[in-house]
Amino acid sequence: MAEQDRGSDDPQLAAIARHALHDEELIAAYAAEDIEDQAESARARALVERCEPCRDLHRDLSAIRAATRASGTAAQRASTLTAPRDFRLTAEDAARLRPGTPIGRIAVRLGWRARVGLGVAAFGRPVGAALATFGVVGLLIGSLTLGGTPLASMMGAAGASPAPGNDQTGTTPESTTFRVSLDPEATSKDEIVPPANQGTSGNGASGGSLALFAGSAALLVLGAGLILAARRTPGRFSPQRGN
Amino acid sequence: MLDSPSLSLAVRRTPPTVEDLRETTVTEDPVQRRDLILLQRAREGDLDGFNDLVVVYQDMLFALVVRMVPDRDQASDAVQEAFFSAYRNMEGFRGGSVRSWLSRIAINAAMDAQRLKKRRPADPYPELEDDTWQPPADPSADPVTTSLTAERHRVLNRALAQITDDQRTAIVLYDVEGYDYAEIAGLTGVSVGTVKSRIHRGRLAMRGLLADRMDLFRG
Known about the structure:
Strand content of chain A: under 5%
Radius of gyration of chain A: 38 Å
Largest sheet of chain B: none
Number of helices of chain B: 9
Distance between the termini of chain A: 61 Å
CATH architecture of the largest domain in chain B: Orthogonal Bundle
Structural class of chain A: mainly alpha
Oligomer: heterodimer
Number of strands of chain A: 0
Largest sheet of chain A: none
Helix content of chain A: over 70%
Radius of gyration of chain B: 20 Å
Number of helices of chain A: 11
Order of helices and strands of chain B: HHHHHHHHH
CATH superfamily of the largest domain in chain B: RNA polymerase sigma factor, region 2, helix turn helix motif
CATH topology of the largest domain in chain B: Rna Polymerase Sigma Factor, Chain: A
Helix content of chain B: 55-70%
Distance between the termini of chain B: 46 Å
Shape of chain B: globular
């Protein structure tokens, strides 16, 4: 008897075991008539024809799809479903949302804002991406040079400190010769000047780096803002069915 | 407000040739013509014009959003935010259907609400008390059929509320509202393949949730 029961269960168990290997998403796509590839479609059809659980799945998914489609569009449901509040805007809301300066109002009248909006929607992403890229590059360069102009300070440090192995008390013939050749009448007073000049040029470079840094940050923000503005600009979409 | 004589006159009149609406073809559809007139009035600073649009579309947008965000309070907030956004961005309207434009803004607001919800996953959606709408029944249908239809609708809504936000959004927009795959991909910012996958997986998940009630759907 037990043998007989096991014998009757075996085909079912085997079918379930086989079905576990079947791709349910493929059946779902087939039920939705979404398979473009002929071979995939044939595979799905074969599964539905030969595997009972796949056939049940296909039938259930088609039924769910049909029931969902019949569940009423928003426009249909609106005839009986009332919004729980009144969404009309108050004058305060309006003032808060569109403060509008006199110039802004004139721009609205002349349609400038709409044109700017169209421009942003059309070119916002590429222009924004380009600006953001320049900004990032500028920031990188700026951050390299902002910390006290490393190149200049490295050179300065090399000139000021003795090279390894050099005797500090010894003379530096090359540099002396160079200075003499540049300015034969240099006095001891003149010797104080170069460090001061060096400092001034360092400050200038640092100021330049700071400006580069700030400008790059502004470009980055502007670029990101343009990309976001382009993303948020509403486009045209119209339902095809049901509305 | 909407059945005021001035408005009905305005609807019957040829829409004014306004520079901002040049892209919009002069439509014979009185609803679309009315919407364009109201929107133009709103753009010119007439708040009542915008509020007339709100009155016309608030129920529809709520019905749309509450399917995507099955919590009436959150759905209300999303619809309110959508109207704020529409008012703020009226200049961004580039012609076409005002209803589609508002729907798209509402869908974006609903997806924002879903994202907000994702940050607080501890609070599940409450059961949607939205059984007021029933699919139109055949007048000659017997009470048993009518009752079965209502029950099917109720369990379907409950299952829909339990699948993931992404899957529900895709199914509602495709199966219920009739957007095509490309439009949904554009709205949700994913590829067409992802949209299809979400719809298929969503239906599979619904089938799992409806396992013990599938008899209602099997004709």
